[in-house]
C-alpha cells in the first residue's frame, strides 16, 4: 500500500553529508526533515571507506613507528585482530546507532531507494512493503554519494573495488592494483602490511597526481620500501580472469587475473620485474608483459551517483545538475529549480567527507534561514580544500600547490619555502627514521599563505594550522607571533617562516 508524507526537507542519501544537511536544516529552525537511505545510514564513509580504511591503517602506522623507535621491540601484527578491529569500527555493518542518532535529533529515516517523480516529490521503493511518497515543502537535497568508476577492460573480471579492500576478509597472496590515487596508495599500504604481494599499475608518471611532486616521491619511495612493486607509466590493455564470480565482500572473486600491460618508454619506469610478471603468452607475445595476480583492485576514481534518481521527470539530466553548485543562494541556477540541490560527493565537488559535511552545514543553515526568514551566516569566498592521505608517511595538503599558485598569481608573485620534516626537534623525535618535507606557498600580493604541504609522520595533525592561516588570510608577519610549543612538530612553522624572504616577514 502506498503512503504519502510531507516534510520541509527531503534528503536523498543518509551518508555523512545527508545527515549534516538534515541536522543543520532542522536545528533551531522548527523545520522537519527525512533521510531516505537504501543501504546503511552513515553511508560509504562509515562502513566502506574512511572508517574501515583508517581503522586498518592506524595500527599499521603505529607498528611501523614502534619498529623505528629505539627502546621498543618490533610489534607483531596480528591480522585476525586487525580485521576484528576494523569490524568493530564499522559496527559489523549495522547502522542501529546512526539511526538512533537521527531519530534522537528529530530526523525521520525511511529505508529504500528514493527517486524523484515530479516537482518536490520523491517516491521511495521499499523491500517487502509498498512505496512511500514524500512531498517536500521547501527542498529535495540529493546527497547520494559517488560510485567507483570501473573502466573497460576490467568489469568482466569482477575486480575488487574499494569496498572489498576496506572490507578485506581473504588476503590475496598477490594483489594487483590499477590506479595511483588516494585509494590505491592507502590500500597498497594496508594490503602489503596484511601480507599481500602488491603490484601497483599506474598510468601516470607519479603517484597522487594532485599533490606536490615531493609528496608523490616520498610515497613512492615508502611503498617500494614496504615491498610494493610500483610501476609507473603502465597501461593495461587486456584483463582476463578464470572463473570470475561474486564470492562476497572482501573475498577473492574467482581465479587468477591476467593483465596485459604496456609501458610507455618516456616515463623511465623500466622493465617490470618480480614473480608476478611472466612473458606475454596465449598469442599476446610482443604486445607487452603479463602481470598475474590472485586479485585485482581497480581504484580509478569515482563519479557522482546520479543515475536512477528520476532527474528526467523534472526536465534535468546529471550534467545540468552538476553545472550548478549546492548553494541555494546562488543567483544563477540555470534550469535547476530552487527546491532541488546536490551536495557532497553527488555534487561533483571534492569527494571528501569533511568537504561534503562542510558544504552540507552551509546548505542546511541556508535552507533554515531561507524558510524562517533569518539572516544566513556569511560564507567566505575561496575556501580551500584540505586533504590528508594516510600512507606511511602521511601526506597532507591544503590550498594551492606551488605550480597552481604560479599559474594563478604569476611566476614572480609566489614564494615557496621547503624545509626537511626533521628540521624541528619535535618532528624528528616522532620516530628515529623520520623523514619528509614541509612547504608553504605564499602570495606576495596579499603576503599570506595560499598553500601548504606536510609529508612525514603524523603530518595530518599539522595541517589545520595552515587551513586556519589560509581561511583567516593571516599575513606571514603576524604568523611569526604564533608561538609553537617546544618540542612539538609545529615548530616546523618557525623553520618555514624563517625560510621566507625577509621583506615578507616584516
Ligand atoms: C576507500 C575510501 C576511503 C576514503 N577515506 C576518506 C578519508 O579518510 N577522509 C575523507 O574525508 N574522505 C574519504 N573518502 C571519501 C568519502 O568516503 C566520501 O567523500 C564520503 O563518503 C561522501 O559522503 P556522502 O554523504 O556525500 O556520500 P556517501 O557516504 O556515499 O553516502 C551516500 C548515501 O546515499 C545512499 N543512496 C544513494 N542513492 C540513493 C537513493 N537513490 N536512495 C536512497 N539512498 C541512496 C547510499 O546508500 C549512501 O549511504 C574515502 C573514500 C574511499 C572510497
Ligand atoms: N584519505 C582520504 O581523504 C581519502 C582516501 C581515499 C579516497 N578518498 C577520496 O576518494 C576519491 C576517489 O579515490 P581514487 O583513488 O579512486 O581516485 P583518484 O582520482 O584519487 O585516483 C584515480 C587514479 O586512477 C587513475 N586512472 C583513472 N582512470 C584510469 C584508467 N582508465 N586506467 C588506469 N588508471 C586510471 C588516475 O590516473 C589516478 O591515478 C578521491 O578523490 C579521494 O579524495 C580520500
UniProtKB/TrEMBL annotation:
Residues 385-492 form the Pyridine nucleotide-disulphide oxidoreductase dimerisation domain. Keywords: FAD, Flavoprotein, NAD, Nucleotide-binding. It comes from the Bacteria. Gene3D superfamilies: 3.30.390.30, FAD/NAD(P)-binding domain. Disulfide bonds join 45-50. InterPro entries: Class-I_Pyr_Nuc-Dis_Oxidored, FAD/NAD-bd_sf, FAD/NAD-binding_dom, FAD/NAD-linked_Rdtase_dimer_sf, Pyr_nuc-diS_OxRdtase, Pyr_nucl-diS_OxRdtase_dimer. Binds 1 FAD per subunit. Its cofactor is FAD. FAD binds at residues 54, 114, 144-146, 345. One of its GO terms (molecular function) is flavin adenine dinucleotide binding. Residues 264-286 are annotated as: Disordered. The keyword NAD applies. PANTHER family: DIHYDROLIPOYL DEHYDROGENASE, MITOCHONDRIAL (PTHR22912:SF151), DISULFIDE OXIDOREDUCTASE (PTHR22912). This is Pyridine nucleotide-disulfide oxidoreductase. It comes from Arsenicicoccus cauae.
